[in-house]
Design a protein that fits this description.
globular, 58% helix
Length: 67
Amino acid sequence: MAAPRYYELFNPLLQALRELGGSASIPELEESANRIIGLSEEDINEIHRGNRTKFSYNLAWARTYLK
């Protein structure tokens, strides 16, 4: 399974935010969303550009759309 697209991260991101009490840092959200989705280490560490992962990049877009 590859890193989910940004729109596939909306529900896991909202669920993670609820579980974390409505407020969290970006690393906390990433960790919690990943736990909910259950991605492998290989999928999490897939590089998008430079040193940024696809998961992190797509999660950033999901946060932006949900704002």
